[in-house]
Amino acid sequence: MSKKADSQTIALELPERTLTQIDTLIRCGHFIDRPEAIAAAVDRLYHEEPQLSTPSQDAFARLCGALHLGTTPKSLRDAELDRLDWESEQP
Description:
Layout: H1 3-6, H2 16-27, H3 34-48, H4 55-64, H5 66-69, H6 73-89
């Protein structure tokens, strides 16, 4: 199947500066055309993003403040074990 057959057409309104940058990349031989350049940019951003989370992971993050504190299920287990160790050493 050809590349065109797999594609869908969309209309974008991009800032002039962005179009100039894309056209410069095309002239330098990095991309064949604008759609290829835009697809490469989206692909790169998608793969550079942190792993996409599930709704249950998002709910957990909101519940325990993971977005701000870096709390994870493992860190919660480790903290609980530390607390139990500390309590067992108390007179």
